[in-house]
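Quick question, first post here. What does this chain look like in 3D?
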Amino acid sequence: MTLLPLIALGCADSPATQVVVLMETDYGVPDEVDRIEASVSKMIDTGSGLEEVETWRSTFALSDDASSQPGLYRLPATFSVLPAEADVGREIVIRLAALGIGTDQALVSRRVRTGFVAGEIRLVRMALYRACAGVSCSDGETCGCSGPSSCAEPACVTEVVRPGDLERISNPGTLPEGAGIPVSDGGLPDGSVPDGGGGTCEPPLLLCGTSCVDPQVDPSYCGSCEIACSTGDVCEAGSCIDAGDCRVNGVGCAGFTYCDETTGECLRGCGDDSQCVDDAEECDTVVHECVCTLGFHLCGAVCVDDLDVNSCGDRCAPCPAPPNATAVCDLGTCDFVCDETHVACGQLCCPTSCPPGQALYQG
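> Answer (accepted):
Ran it through. Tokens below.
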């Protein structure tokens, strides 16, 4: 029963906006499964379609009695995903995998594609069932179970869960009621929505992924969820239409494209800053690429702050610190500050006093 507060998408805008992931399995722990690997990705529109970009990954070592063993976790357990301000409306993909003893191969895995509800804490239950081992699902589906007590008959269900269909909770620091395997995982807490969720949109909008879209005008879902217009085309009355010469007809270019003034074609790339998905990006109009603004640098696919302790200078990892110290980023250089009972001595923090019967020494 462990809450792991993880900011997987960036600096948190508000702790009240988060998705809490409940992990559980019906495999024996630790006899059959001794670790769960978890990852979080966010969906980024590159102009030619949505791309899944992983932003966080961790492996949790499991035990059937983790009360006195630091670094071990007892199931069921939870961790939280908090969005950066710009990511509150963005889709995320959460993946869990149960790892067998002495191997990094997943015995079973599952995915959920969902999002956030601004100002609310939502719960997604992700149980890893042994019955799903070896079950192969199509793209966009994951193996799950909506049965009330077990997963004797696994099924491939959609991996998409609308954020509004996730269970709403008030306290992310405690396990929700019925946190074990017997509760139907996924969807609504009463089990009325099978694993994978569901939901509808008010006509004429259409549910595509976790978003309600207008298929008559949306070039990413033109006519249906499965049809995306070619780069530069527009969607009119549910049909993709060639924008033609972007220099003369006034239609302009759609998505992540810019108008080539020489040919009149819509080419992939940015034409201004508004086409860059990250607030810390700007458009380099010479090469038509989104680049990090001054004071930020690229880590993976995300621009991170040069002055943040988790990405100090040109680093893509947190600043280190010795025991009894706190890591800090000083104008782009990693440093540390010793706690009030210790003082810096080289690259360590030495105690300023000793318990009775002991004396300080320099070694």
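The mean pLDDT is 76.
The first strand starts at residue 3 and ends at 6.
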